[in-house]
Structure formats: structure tokens, C-alpha cells
UniProtKB/TrEMBL annotation:
InterPro entries: FAS1_dom_sf (IPR036378), Fasciclin-like_AGP (IPR052806). Gene3D superfamilies: FAS1 domain. It comes from the Eukaryota. The keyword Signal applies. Residues 1-20 form the signal peptide. This is FAS1 domain-containing protein. The lineage of its organism: Eukaryota, Viridiplantae, Streptophyta, Embryophyta, Tracheophyta. Keywords: Signal.
Amino acid sequence: MENVVLKVAIFMASFFVASAFPSPFSPTAPILGSILRSLGFRELSVAAYSLTDSPWGGGPYTIFAPTDASLSVCGSCSVSRILQEHTLPGIFSVNYLRTLAFGTKLETMVPGRCITITSDLLNGTKVFLGGAEIDRPNLFNNGFVVVHGLSGFVSHLSPFSCILGPAQAVPAFSVMRLMLRDASMRLRISGYSVLALALRVKYAELAGLQNVTVFGVDDAAIFAGGQAYVRDVRFHIVPNRLLMASDLEEMPAATVLPTLERNQTLVVTTAGGGGVLEPMRINHVRITSPNVVHNLKIVVHGLSKPFPHLNDPPVAQASSCEIEGSMDGYESCALAPTLEIKSTAEIDDHHGL
């Protein structure tokens, strides 16, 4: 289906009407903050001033609000920027969003930054904003401000977010290249500059894949002693799989994931579903920032430290468990028979950066 870029021109008329005739409700930062706070979006409520200070400060607005819990996984994200990039000038009901062509782009409160609207291809009832589902539509609507609740959030938008072409004319490898550039740019502004550079170095190898799941260590952790990640980055990349946090949580213990490093695999050592006291772990390392960056082809999950190799000598395995702490009730790192998820394509053997 043909993609369409909407610069919200169809809603400009309502904006100018609101400007020409005094509205009974003109949103100010305190009013917007009060609305968001009453709906449970305390993090966004503090950043409400970023909307009223923008060129579209007079409203009307449609806000796609991520929960405080989802925002907490991205400590390096700017909440005011997140709010601006999750807000559209104009009124957008969910029923209207369902009528838009798949992949329609809408310009946000940040000029030159667009969010992508998609819907469930089976029945069209679910609507997604950059991959995050609008799971609580119409939480608030007074005719001038609309608030929809999101199941997650869209990480910082790139300068290329408004650029597109006919989907049917774009080869798969070209889409992957665009997604790699997009992910690299968003990683740099999210505190993962070293990983962004690594993806750039691995560009030729990654561009030929269908999808990529990357487990990353942020710059602060690398400079604090995680330099091993730099020389072992291929061991942290799962080829041809787009594994969102929800997919990882559903994997049973002992599931094996292939990596770009030939004959080196990752293992789900603790299955998800155990809550904060028993979080999911891969190679005994827990994911601290799930879905820190994701787009159509790539998802990046943040780690506190690099993955250890489970086929190292037993002493090294024990050390890796001790560092993370025993959260699963077992006294050793011994693994049960594994369930292997194989890659769908052969990967060339390249080592290091």
C-alpha cells in the first residue's frame, strides 16, 4: 500500500479557525500538566511547558502518552523531547487514524520529525504509533486536547523520519540500509555512541540481513570497564530475527539464539515472567533497557555489561554468575538441554570490528 506523508495540512484549517476565534479552552502549560497528571502521566506532566513554548503552542493537540513505567527504561531520553515527538498539532481520533494508509507519516510538534501510523493488517482494529500500540484510546477529549495511551514509546525520531518512497519500489536491502542509518543516529543521541559506530563498521555485513536484534552496552558502561564489548560486538547480534522485549519474555529457559559470531550462541538462562526479583537473563546477564531503539528492521536492547561466553572454562562461567548474583535459585551456571533457534541465512565469518 502506498505510503503517504501528511504534514497535517488537512488539520490546518481547524488550527486557524481556533486562532481567529477565541476558544473557550486555550491550553497552557499548567492546564496541560494537570490533564496529564490526572491521567497518571506524571513524567509527561512535568514537561508540558515544552508544548506551549513550541510554534504550535496554541493548540489543538493530540498527545500519544507513554506510561511512566515505559519511560523509566530510557534514562538518557529527554522527556520534553519525547512529549513533543509524541504530540501532533490537530485533533486525531483513533477512528480517523484507522482510515489512514498503512505507513502514513504525520509530522509532530518537532518540525521535520514524523511518526509512522500503521494498523493491524488482519482486521485493522489495532493502531500503532511507530510500532507502539495505542492500547487506551480517547483517555481525554475536550475538543481541543486529545490524549491516547500507548503501550510503549517511540525513541527519539531521526531527521530521516519524514522521508519515504513507494514501499513496493524499495528493495529489501535498501530498506535495511535506511533502518541501519536511522538506528545509528538514534543510538548516538541515546547514549550508545560506541554501538552506533560499531553498526557503521559492520554496515556491509548487516545490510544483507532481513532483520537484526542487537544487545548493546551504553557508553558509560563501556568506559567503566565494559571494553570487552567493543571486540566482541558480533557475539551480541542475532541475525534475521526481530525480537522485541515481549518476544524475549515468552522464550523458555535454555532457548538458544544464533549470533553473527560463527559457532557462538546465546542462551536464555532465566526465562521471563518472574518480575523484578527474577528478571529474564541471557547468558546470565539481564536486559536493563528493553527496546531502547527499534524500527521496521532493527531492535536494540540495553545491557548492564557484555555477555560472557558460556563455553568458557567452568571458572569463568562461575565468575560471570557471581557478578550478576544468583536470582534463579540455582547454585551453578549449569544449563539444561537447549532449544535452538537457527538463523535463516548463512553468515560470513568476520571477526572483531
